[in-house]
Each structure stands twice: as structure tokens, then as C-alpha cells.
Amino acid sequence: MPETILYVCTTCRREGDDPDGLRAGARLLDALRDRAGGTPDLRVEPVECLSVCKRPCTVAVAAADRWTYVYGDMDPAASAETILAGLAAYAATPDGIVPWRERPSAFKKGVIARIPPFPAPRPLPAGTPEAAE
Amino acid sequence: MPETILYVCTTCRREGDDPDGLRAGARLLDALRDRAGGTPDLRVEPVECLSVCKRPCTVAVAAADRWTYVYGDMDPAASAETILAGLAAYAATPDGIVPWRERPSAFKKGVIARIPPFPAPRPLPAGTPEAAE
Predict the structure, then answer these.
(1) For chain B, which terminus, N or C, has the lower number of CB atoms within 10 Å?
(2) What gap in Å lies between CA B56 and CA B21, rounded to an integer?
(3) Would you call A120 and B45 a contact, using CB atoms and an 8 Å cutoff?
(4) Is residue A74 part of a domain?
């Protein structure tokens, strides 16, 4: 299985963050690391900013030959399990496109953008709906 | 110079689009192709959806070993020149991070997200500001 990379923005703040404590993004990183231990082929990488500052917390999911997805509005405590479940579904696809009904609700609502596999977009299969997936 | 790929969402609609005509995203693709002819190391790729449906028109910029940027709110006619100027600045950097003051205003306002170079984020240089770049 090719490695999946989960980028976690550690700069994301949330209203109510303790100014002397860890930011929400850093807390999400910790929660993900706590729960991701032992997950095969997953690398959790802190990033200083994903430029989605208005919808914290923010993560991005990427793997070779798969679409990259960016998600916002992730709760720093509660979303870690959801994110890991979503990543497992992502890793099980050939191209990163998880069928809509199999996506966690937080991914459906929180999707910020998706980017085709680099270097070339794969042709979409016939019958792919036109609207956002 | 490594190739830069400009993904253009051709599904993006704008209010006022002629229902029998080309969608705004497809018109932006045409405008970019018209003006990009002969630009070295640039590939313009149509994509069916970048999942930024609320901020049409949308494009993404990617290159090997550089950060990927996603931009929205692009005008289908007027933004082609701006996008190409922004891409030239992007291509001239080692990592895709164009200094803030050198970015086109439409890129500053329209940034949707940025994603680190795959497979690993590069360490940010000392003194990099914390907030969105």
C-alpha cells in the first residue's frame, strides 16, 4: 500500500484557545499522533500553515497517484478518530476518491479543495457526476 | 525549469452564465489557453471539479518539489493575465512560495489552500511568519 501523508496545520487557532497553551492545530496533531500509532503506511506531518485560516482546524491528505484533499472545520479533540477513519477509506481506493456516501460527515461538510494526482489528472470514469465530490 | 501545471476547473459556474453557453470555468480555460501559448514549461489541464464550488472560478497550481496553491474567485475573462503573471512568479521560486508583496492581489484575496511539496514538507526557513502566506 503506498504511504498516505496527513498534513496537520499546527498554526490553526480556535476561539477560546488558551493563549498560554497549545493552539488547536497543535492539539489536533497530538490527538492524531496518539491514535495513529501503528497505523501502517501513514505518516502524520505537522505544517505551519495550509492557508485555510478561516476554517480551523485544517488538514490535508495526500498519496502518490491519488487526489489530494484539504479539509477544514476539524474539531481539535473529537475529529481525530473521524479523520483516521476517513484516511483508511482513502487508502483503500485506487485514486483517493472515496464514494460520497462512504465519507465521514465531517469530510463532506469540511472539504475545502481537492487537487488531481500529480503530474497529470486521471481521466474521470464515465458517469462521474459533474458536481463536487 | 520544472514543468508547472495549472489545473482549471471547467465545472465552475457563475451567476449569470448563459445556460446554453460555456460555463465560466470553461471560458476561463479558453482564455488561459489563448494567452498561455508558447509559455515554456507550462501545462494547462482542465479538471472537472476542484471542490471549491462556492468560490468560482477555481484553479490550482502545482510543480514537482513546490508547494501547491489553490485559488478561487477568479474572473473568467479578466483573470487570465493575472494568473499567468502569478504563475511566472511561482515558477521563478525554488519552492513555490512567492513573497507576499510580489503576489497578484487576486491571489492574495483568492487563496483557498496550499499544500506542501509531496512527499515531505520542506522545513520553513527561520523567521517565516506564522500566519498564512
Answers:
(1) N
(2) 16
(3) yes
(4) yes
A43: pLDDT strictly greater than 90: yes
Q: Measured between alpha carbons, how far is B11 from A131 in angstroms, rounded to an integer? A: 7
The ipTM assigned to this model is 0.86
| pTM as predicted | 0.88
Q: Residue A60 carries which DSSP code?
A: E
pLDDT by residue (tens digit) across B6-25?
999 999 998 888 888 999 99
Contact B98, B49 (CB under 8 A): no
The answer to whether A119 faces chain B, any CB pair under 8 Å, is yes
B48 lies in some domain: yes
Kindly report, residue by residue over A95-111, the tens digit of the pLDDT.
Answer: 999 999 999 999 999 99
Instruction: Name the residue range of residue B97's domain.
Output: 4-119
Residue B114: closest CA among chain A residues belongs to which residue? A50
Residue B63, Cβ neighbours under 10 Å: how many?
A: 25
* A114, A122, A133: best to mutate for the B interface, most B CBs within 10 A: A114
